[in-house]
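From the shared-data thread, chain only:
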Amino acid sequence: MLDLAIVHLPSTFPLWRAIPDRPAPWSTAASLSFDGGLVLTDRAADKVLWSTAATSASAGDRAVLLNTSNLQIQSTGGSSSPDVVWQSFDYPPKTIVQGQNFTSATKLYSFDRRFAMRLGSNYFGLHIEPPPSSGGVAAAMYFKHMAMEAKAQIVAGGGPTYARVEPDGFPAMYQREGPPADVLSFDTFNRGVRALRRMTLEPNRNLRAYYWNGARWALDYTAINDNDRCELPTTYGAYIVCAEPSGSCECLANATDGSGYAAAVPASFASNLCGTTGGEVGGLYWAVRRWGVEPVNKELLRSEQAASTTDCEARCEHNCSCWGAVYSNRTGVCYVMDYPAQLLVASDDRKMGYFKIMSLEEEGTRGRGDGRTSGVKAALLVVGVVSVVTAAAFGAYRVWDRRRRSAVDARRQMGAADDGLSPGPYKNLGSFSSVELTNSFRR
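Structure, as tokens:
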């Protein structure tokens, strides 16, 4: 597939990609041009595949790949110090590198954009992203790290917070420069390991940190223990119950009365509160009740004291934004879910769950109605089959997206001199005089 990427050459790992969720076919006749902004175009179809924010171009504008791996568009505007009009650091796909600020305005996405890492006012969390057509359904959080605020307090109204991976082996959370409000230690924290570091939202929905040890990416942090299989979102989607510790799954509503389930009842019989016009729930739904389940992320859910299972269920049934509720007979706590039932685990029979499941018939009707159902080198690449385009600031290449090449091959294909891949800064491709206004790169 064809994409624009900033690649760590020794490992061929893409630190940044322009369109990771919608790459073009690798056979596309692509053109990368610069006229105050970068534009990746399918020449045959005369279609823009990707572009930076539109800016008013002026002589001297340039695109530069910095030694931090940050791709910037700089405008001099007649002054000695250039202004940054766009930078790749503001648009991280699934990875942030050390020195890169991660703000509440950005997200790390999984390759399919179904999962994301977000930064809140005093925490960062991992979420299951609702589809665009979900009509306001909330994202389900499955991991949360709160700021300890030991050295600095986060003050309400004191400005946005941001996080940054520091060279000493930790991501820190700040509201302003100075002592951090939070430090999350990696395994190499304060051990004198100076190397390129990155945090990546992995394909298995986990968040991991690595450092480059000169030969490979060494694991330095894992948000969720890999043995806790039920704490990671399964590939089966919603309405699944996970059994610990095996991680085996079964459907939430694949049985009848007498085996732990209540028979699924059409919403028109159970409750027509939301009617068939959609509402926040989405129209008709089935009501399913099951003993012996609970949310694995219950500490992250809204909870209320309830007098009974019936009381807990009623709070959800008469609320069109509620998709499920689980009651604990032992504690009297009612956990409320404002998203379709996910992250459920098998529990004891003191837990009772009530869940709303979208009617497939209603969903199909709606679909027919609207027609939508430290030390390394970096280089700017077009992911696809490799071919040198120009000897300017950075090259546009085509490589196989999921094929890892050796460091020797990467250096040879980029035409780079063998001036070392030992610890040191990224090669600043501005040494090629960067990319001046109107330069273009073609296949």
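The longest helix spans residues 360-370.
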